[in-house]
From TrEMBL:
One of its GO terms (molecular function) is oxidoreductase activity. The keyword Disulfide bond does not apply. Residues 15-201 form the Pyruvate flavodoxin/ferredoxin oxidoreductase pyrimidine binding domain. The gene is vorB. Residues 251-347 form the Pyruvate:ferredoxin oxidoreductase core domain. Transmembrane segments: none annotated. InterPro entries: 2-oxoacid_oxidoreductase, PFOR_II, Pyrv_Fd/Flavodoxin_OxRdtase_N, THDP-binding, Transketo_C/PFOR_II. This is 3-methyl-2-oxobutanoate dehydrogenase subunit VorB. The keyword Protein transport does not apply. CDD domains: TPP_PYR_PFOR_IOR-alpha_like (cd07034).
Amino acid sequence: MSERVFMKGCEAIAEAAVRAGCRFFAGYPITPQNEIPEYFARRMPEVNGTFVQGESEVASVNMLYGAASTGIRAMSSSSSCGISLYSEGVSYMASARIPAVYVNVQRGGPGIGAIQPAQQDYFQATKASGNGGFKMLVLAPSTVQECVDMVYEAFDLAARDENPVLVLTDGVMGTMMEPVVLPPMKSDEEIAELRKKFEHRAIIGHKRGENAFCRPGSVGTGQEAVNIEAAKLYSTWDKDVEVEEFMTEDAEIILAAYGISARISRVVVKKLREEGIKAGMIRPIKISPFPYDTFANLDFNQVKGILNVEMSIPSQMRWDIDHAVQGRTQVNDCLRSGGQLLTNDQVYDAARKLIKEVL
């Protein structure tokens, strides 16, 4: 069995990427994700990789675009307002179907916001990561171990779909330390084989007279053809829905949460169970594609209310919950934002209030 090591979230994210075969990283400093580029700056020379501190977020995401276009496993990271500046480059990568991974360690907002943790980028991540209506897989870890596992998996998902993949975490997960089991390091031979699979459309230089691969562009009906092809990909993502249902079998009250808010909600569910309240939790592990069916297929004769728990004001994941539930049960919110953290007591009090209203 692999040895457990004690690591900070941001550093674990970077190490997982290296072990997944990432050999290019470009990024720009912003709290609370600075330890990701700092770790890459030390680690990349050890694996014959490349680290670049871009002069800006815009420069960094376009370096990611360029590197990933060659077939190398490439990654970038930023936080919230910095990720906003990635939107154009991410949209370009989605249009060109480039397999790249990036990480958002969320902080408070809108605007420059606060450097403390938040979950205010849910809409940006799942609905509008850039112009054009493209979609991405979005993974949302709730432990440092999941940060490791999801970043490692994200590179395979990006390569499978030839599409950008986002890992959406937050400042709590990025700065906390937990024991983790690290995945195996991909060998140079494995990395070379992975790159070779993309060779048929990699931008790596061609002999005189040969043309580089290029997807149809925006002239005439070319862009629509690209969009139709992408839509076919998105329609296959039902198999990628990933959700945790915790103590939901007989639950009359459901707490819905992802990421760090789910850790708090789990504690509250256990406390309510000790008090004889039939509480449970639904945690989207991937927030895109969202587990609509998990909510829609609840027994609403049994489930009397849902408490949406997230560090965002106004609520954002609530939109997807409402879309799934269609008014068949009462939905309340328990929210903080702007870097203010939820506490166990706040979630517990909100749950007790919902219980009083519906039971």
